[in-house]
Amino acid sequence: MQRFTTFETAAPTARAGAIGGSARAEAIYRSIFDAVMDQRLPPGAKLVEEQLGAIFEASRTLVRSALQALAQDHIVTIERHRGAFVCAPTVADAEDIFFSRKVVEAALAREAARRTDAARIADLRGLLADEREALRRGERRKAIRLSGDFHIAVAAICGEGALTQFLRSLVSRSSLVIALYGRSAASACGHDEHAAFLDALEAGDGERAARLMTEHLDHIFRDLALAERSEAPVDIRLVLRA
Amino acid sequence: MQRFTTFETAAPTARAGAIGGSARAEAIYRSIFDAVMDQRLPPGAKLVEEQLGAIFEASRTLVRSALQALAQDHIVTIERHRGAFVCAPTVADAEDIFFSRKVVEAALAREAARRTDAARIADLRGLLADEREALRRGERRKAIRLSGDFHIAVAAICGEGALTQFLRSLVSRSSLVIALYGRSAASACGHDEHAAFLDALEAGDGERAARLMTEHLDHIFRDLALAERSEAPVDIRLVLRA
DNA sequence: TTCAGCCCGATTGTATACAAAATGGATTGG
DNA sequence: CCAATCCATTTTGTATACAATCGGGCTGAA
Known about the structure:
disordered N terminus, DNA-binding, homodimer, 3 strands, mainly alpha, 10 helices
């Protein structure tokens, strides 16, 4: 059966409305967003406006527009007179993000169980297969991305509402958390819990689906090596001087 | 007892980080936001950049920055080459917003019941009294705002996490919904359901609090006159030409 | 050597100038 | 009288210029 949806790792604002009314700024947003999700831009990386402008052949105006949007989505932070940096979520942020995800995804799972159909399930099984394949090949980043896509695809069963949008943002931030605190092999939803969840969804058992999702998210969170990093992104200079 | 928090109607992004790294842009955001919440700027109103610039004595650069942020928060929509307009949520939007609120606020209520203390409860009772007073005096707008503040204050018991931020955004959008579809007297949480909810919270009964909150939001939603407006904001010219 | 203070380069913040697009009205033809 | 078209005006989109600020390195003295 042909899949009739493709779930790229979607930026939170991708559909929310043009960034500054500009398609070009949105493309820049998109490029930076993807780079962060792929960990080509690691947490803490500085994003210099003029450099970005040169890369994308655009003026700082558009770059700033994109950076602002990324800041609102908690992908980068903008510090006044200092510039934009890829966000480095603290442990507290990570807790908050996963707590929020549990609330939102449990509710969406319940709802999705009521609404789903065979085609949707097939789509999700396809994503699952892709994810497994990526894991088997050791393509960790791709697996993480596909894992996120799975969660978003479940949400999208309920339509593109506010909760789904919000979840997109939380999933993006989760990628940053995993980039910072994720252990090499685990943390990529590798427990085949997605499969069990999908079974519950297919059976239309919303309660079970919600419970499995909650547990799944707990597992991901617990697999993080949260102690291994200091809470705040460290600026060596500040630390040594203070 | 002195209240130690003041809950102005907070903009979703107010704390999330400087808008474009600029305090001035944030002030503009704030002014427009407040005007929309107060219904001084009605849904559909056009926001011309240069006009705003003149009003705030700022260049279009800063105005655009603020408008972009407002767009990301669904307070205004930006249409390419046409400009920014105060959002006019459709009936579908309204459903989505209140569904999301039920999910988020039920969870936050449960959590708040575990964390709350006497001081917080006193704060909330204060807000409740203000709201009642405003209603008694017939100050409808103020009552609506205070009602929103109440909901946010409950969320804030759980801290300023992602869910609370998200709720801020939903409450803002609810104000727009009420502006469009609210009936004169009702819709302002006037049922004293806040008081009952607060009792549950004080008793530490999270389940009851969550249930009361859900029902309360259902009531607000049902009190809207959702049929009385066309779904999409109408542009007369387009309608007549097409 | 080490620290304080100062200066300069790099980078961000803001305003403005110019280009592109849409809107609304006038004009022309039916 | 109406409709369609064209043009001027308004408004947005983008680039660029200039100002403000920050950080790093240099200098100089203790």
